[in-house]
Every structure is written in structure tokens, then in C-alpha cells.
């Protein structure tokens, strides 16, 4: 056959292969790269600090622009998708979709829309602020920010305003504009290191490090004191400490200061009044389990507590009260209620999305960086310095965050197992003027809702379990005859819908469907009951499992408030 009759085969991609190399994905511009490098400092940059780096960019430029995200990805050697999925998971990061969109206003006013602030008129406040500012500032609705005792609460960057009015917020915005959009809340008066040591603070820790006490001795005393986790699970503290101490090293301690439950603000109170009680308890825990590092995870809304901790941890280091070989890192949340769940918090500390894990963190390969990790709530370690002393005895009191229709809301140190009626009358000055006690939340948004005729029940896990409720972190929200309990349950379910991490469909879809059903003119009670059962049985973590509690309680105890 002659060559002219031979058919030449051309591969379909041959022409494309001849084309010159063209970089794929979003390209990094030199200006953005220079700005990000100036914020991050010299390389190398740690993967677990990704959220801290995002905060640096957000704080400086008031948003996360595509150019900065691409530059961050290049600096960290990560795919843009890894940066983007983390940045978009957390509510406090304002990700700009494109360069064309432009940055939002440098001043963002967040108005709490959760239960306590809603009862105090936050929707009207939100409308008033939108009218007041126009394009001058961005006004957005936000979930609970831990200011339930000072409702309605508003945050402007690190500044939080309690008992907010249009006038007080407008004055704060004006001051921020003068300061170029940067501002900080003044630090309150609190017990500093000198005052705490004058009362015997850190004496036990020093004695323990000197060999006067043993970890086993501490475990026994905490067991005798019957100290349990104050974050809501009530797991025996001594048992948890022993479990971690028995695991191979290295071991870590993580302090959970991400209280995001509607109605909860006790941890903020302790950190803003007696931070060294918390810090000594934390250091005793680290000594007892021979931890190599401590990670203190604090919710982003608590800027004042963060400033106090930064100052006092520095003082402890200079005073030699933090061992030279013990690393202590303060980590900043970014607006995700789910990160109050201990395994989701660990994911966040590692610089990831806060998706819950399936096993407890003290198990090897499941804790921080694949190592056994002791996780304690802020209030739990607050009680440790007193309870490890030989004369301590059994723990008799705990902190209750009380808000809603009471005359004197706030954190109340009261007997364990007190009733809500005694709490209102003895510690809160009674009901607010013109309000009659109707109902209460014994354990925040997820703890259920009980009627006033059950107000004599002890606020204890055992007593409340019989009625389908729990005390959790002891966030007590008091309702009155001026509140519709079905509307309360809708507000709480909307909160859960907003805060679901989306990992499992029973929670992600279930909370959204429940909100849709509860907004209807007539509740489909059978469908809501079935939906509650599915969410409770099939959700991965406590958020989805407990989200139906308020709805179930309305169906059981408040049928007269249900739209029909």
C-alpha cells in the first residue's frame, strides 16, 4: 500500500497537549500575597492555626477576600478548597464571593435574635438600627452571643453592648468610625494574680509540683467531692482524669470555653471575675495527667475574657507558675455553637470545620492531633482548686445562668438541686414587674421546657429526666404569662437550624423541616412527633438529638399555645 493511502491517526487530545502550560484555579496576586505575609509573619505556618490566620485577615480587612484566601492557601501549601471550606463554615468570617462584590462595611452590627434577646425586643431594635444606619454600617441578625442577662445584646466587632438601644449602639458606631473601625471593650474589675495569691492561690499547685501531693491523691479527692462535668454531660471528673492519665503520652488538656447554649453565660462570668481560679484548676489538671500542652478554646464573642486571659497567662509565665516545658495556647472560636461539643471543638482547634467525631477524645487517635486529650469545661476547672484540698468535702453549689422574666438576672451560685421557684425568689428578687411565672427552660435551648406547676422539681439530672428534660449547663430561662411557649420553641428550633453543622441529614434536614412545620398556621403534630423521633434516634451528636426537646415539651405541656 502506498504511503498516500495510509490513514494518519490523530488522538483527540493531541492538540490540547501541544498547548502551553496554563495555571489552573484562582491565581495569587502579588499585592494580596504581600499583605497576607505581613500578617502571618515568617514561615513555616502551622496547619492547626488556620482559623487564627483567618481571624488575622478578617480583623485587619473586615472580610475574607478571594485574593487573600488564595494567598493564604499558597503560603500554607493547602488547596484553596481546604481554606474555603473552613472559612465558610464559621459564621463570623465574612467571605466575599468575588472581587467584583467588594468588601462589606468595615463596621458590622450584630443583633442577637435568640430567645432572651427576642423577649427583650431585639427584632424592633434590629429594625431601628437598619433605619438609623442605612449604608453607614451593616446590621445583621445573629444567634446567641452570651449576653442573655443583659438582653438585648449587640456586638460590634470585639465590643459587646448589653441592654442595647438604638442610641447606645449609634454612639458606639460613631466612636468606632472616629477610631477607624477598631475598638475594644474596657476590661472590668477582676481578681488579678496578686490578689489571688494573697488568698492562697497557686499554693496547692506549687506544693503538688514539689512532690507534696500525687495525682492519685487528687483523683481520690475529686471523686470524694463528687465533682462532675459542668458543661452538661455530668461525667465524673475524677474518672475522666484517670482515663487520660492511663493513656500513653504525649497527652493534652483542652479547656472548653465555647459556651453557646442559649441562656448560658456562666463561663464568661468566671473568666471576667475570677480568671485565676480557672487557670489554677487548668494547671492542676495538666499536672495530674502529665499533659504536654494546654489548649484553651474560647468563643469569639468573649473578647473581654480573651483579653484578660492573654494578660494573666503572660503574668503566670513570667512568674514561673507555668512550667517551661508546658505549652499553653489560647484559641479563638469563630461563631459555631456546635464547637461546644468536645469532639467538634477538637476539630476546630486543629484548624478544621467543627464536625463532631464518634468517640470520646481521651481515646488514643481520637483526641487532639491523634493523642489522648482531657477536655474540661471552664466551670469544672473553676471548682478544682477548692475541691482538691484535704478539708474540701463534697461539692454543694454550682453556677446557674438565670435570664428571662426575672427581676435580677445573672449568674447565681446556689445549691446543687435547688428548684427554679427557690432560685427565682431567693436569688433573683422574684419575677419581673408585671409578669407571672408560667414556664421555664431548665437547661438552655436543648433542655426542654417545663410548666410552672413543676417549678418545685430539683434542678438535677435525675429529677428532670422523668419529665423528658435535663439541666445541662444550668441555663435557666424564665418565661411568663406574656410569652407564648410555641413561639419560644420556634425561636429555639430556628437557632438549631442555623447552628447545625450539616454533617448528618437527620439534624440538617430535620431542624429545617421542623421550623417550616412550626411556622405554619396549624401545627401537624403527628408529623412533628415522628420528626422528633428520627432526629433523636439518628443524629450523630447531641445537637440533633436534643433539638426536638422544646417541641416535644410544647406538645406535652402547653397544647393551649399550639397554633390550631
The first-level CATH class of the largest domain is given as Alpha Beta
Tell me the CATH topology of the largest domain.
Answer: Rossmann fold
End-to-end span in angstroms? 89 Å
What number of domains? 4
Mean pLDDT: 91
| Gross CATH architecture of the largest domain | 3-Layer(aba) Sandwich
Low-pLDDT stretches: 6-17
Instruction: Describe the global form.
Output: globular
> Strand order within the widest sheet?
10-9-13-11-12
CATH superfamily of the largest domain: NADH-ubiquinone oxidoreductase 51kDa subunit
Question: What proportion of the residues form beta strands (DSSP E)?
Answer: 5-15%
The percent of residues in helical segments reads: 40-55%
Work out the radius of gyration: 26 Å
SS content category? alpha/beta
Count of DSSP-assigned helices: 24
The tally of strands reads: 13
The major sheet is characterized as: 5 strands, mixed
Amino acid at each position: 500500500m502506498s504511503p498516500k493511502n495510509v490513514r494518519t491517526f490523530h488522538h483527540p487530545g493531541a492538540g490540547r497537549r501541544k498547548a502551553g502550560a496554563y495555571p489552573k484555579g484562582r491565581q495569587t496576586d502579588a499585592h494580596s500575597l504581600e499583605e497576607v505575609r505581613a500578617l502571618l509573619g515568617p514561615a513555616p505556618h502551622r496547619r492547626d492555626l488556620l482559623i487564627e490566620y483567618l481571624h488575622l485577615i478578617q480583623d485587619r480587612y473586615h472580610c475574607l477576600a478571594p485574593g487573600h484566601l488564595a494567598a493564604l492557601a499558597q503560603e500554607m501549601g493547602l488547596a484553596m478548597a481546604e481554606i474555603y471550606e473552613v472559612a465558610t463554615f464559621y459564621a463570623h468570617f465574612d467571605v466575599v464571593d468575588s472581587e467584583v462584590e467588594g468588601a462589606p462595611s468595615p463596621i458590622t452590627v450584630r443583633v442577637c435574635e435568640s430567645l432572651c434577646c427576642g423577649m427583650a425586643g431585639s427584632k424592633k431594635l434590629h429594625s431601628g438600627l437598619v433605619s438609623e444606619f442605612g449604608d453607614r454600617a451593616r446590621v445583621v441578625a445573629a444567634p446567641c452571643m452570651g449576653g442573655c442577662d443583659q438582653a438585648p445584646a449587640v456586638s460590634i466587632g470585639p465590643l459587646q453592648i448589653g441592654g442595647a438601644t438604638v442610641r447606645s449602639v449609634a454612639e458606639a458606631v460613631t466612636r468606632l468610625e472616629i477610631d477607624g473601625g477598631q475598638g475594644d471593650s474596657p476590661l472590668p474589675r477582676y481578681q488579678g494574680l496578686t490578689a489571688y495569691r494573697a488568698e492562697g492561690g497557686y499554693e496547692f499547685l506549687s506544693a503538688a509540683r514539689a512532690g507534696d501531693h500525687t495525682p492519685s491523691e487528687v483523683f481520690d479527692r475529686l471523686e470524694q467531692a463528687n465533682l462532675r462535668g459542668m458543661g452538661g454531660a455530668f461525667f465524673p471528673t475524677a474518672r475522666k482524669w484517670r482515663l487520660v492519665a492511663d493513656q500513653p503520652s504525649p497527652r493534652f488538656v483542652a479547656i472548653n470555653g465555647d459556651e453557646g447554649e442559649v441562656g448560658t453565660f456562666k463561663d464568661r462570668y468566671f473568666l471576667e471575675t475570677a480568671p485565676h481560679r480557672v487557670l489554677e484548676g487548668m494547671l492542676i489538671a495538666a499536672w495530674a495527667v502529665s499533659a504536654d500542652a494546654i489548649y484553651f478554646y474560647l468563643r469569639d464573642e468573649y473578647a473581654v475574657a480573651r483579653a484578660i486571659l492573654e494578660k494573666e497567662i503572660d503574668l503566670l509565665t513570667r512568674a514561673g507558675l507555668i512550667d517551661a516545658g508546658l505549652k499553653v495556647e489560647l484559641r479563638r472560636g469563630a461563631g459555631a455553637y456546635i464547637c461546644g461539643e468536645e469532639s467538634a471543638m477538637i476539630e476546630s482547634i486543629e484548624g478544621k470545620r467543627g464536625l463532631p467525631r464518634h468517640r470520646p477524645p481521651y481515646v488514643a487517635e481520637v483526641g487532639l492531633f491523634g493523642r489522648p486529650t482531657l477536655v474540661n469545661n471552664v466551670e469544672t476547672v473553676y471548682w478544682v482548686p477548692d475541691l482538691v484540698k484535704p478539708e474540701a468535702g463534697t461539692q454543694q453549689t454550682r453556677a446557674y445562668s438565670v435570664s428571662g422574666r426575672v427581676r435580677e438576672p445573672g449568674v447565681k451560685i446556689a445549691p446543687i438541686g435547688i428548684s427554679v421557684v427557690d432560685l427565682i425568689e431567693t436569688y433573683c428578687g422574684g419575677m419581673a414587674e408585671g409578669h407571672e411565672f408560667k414556664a421555664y427552660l431548665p437547661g438552655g435551648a436543648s433542655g426542654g421546657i417545663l410548666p410552672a406547676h413543676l417549678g418545685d422539681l430539683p434542678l438535677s439530672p435525675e429529677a428532670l429526666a422523668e419529665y423528658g428534660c435535663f439541666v445541662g449547663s444550668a441555663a435557666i430561662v424564665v418565661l411568663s404569662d406574656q410569652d407564648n411557649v410555641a413561639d419560644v420553641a420556634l425561636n429555639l428550633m430556628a437557632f438549631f437550624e442555623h447552628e447545625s453543622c450539616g454533617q448528618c441529614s437527620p439534624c440538617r434536614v430535620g431542624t429545617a423541616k421542623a421550623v417550616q412545620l412550626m411556622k405554619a398556621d396549624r401545627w401537624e403534630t403527628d408529623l412533628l412527633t415522628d420528626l422528633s423521633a428520627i432526629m433523636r434516634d439518628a443524629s450523630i451528636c447531641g445537637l440533633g438529638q436534643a433539638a426536638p426537646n422544646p417541641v416535644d415539651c410544647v406538645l406535652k405541656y402547653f397544647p393551649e399555645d399550639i397554633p390550631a
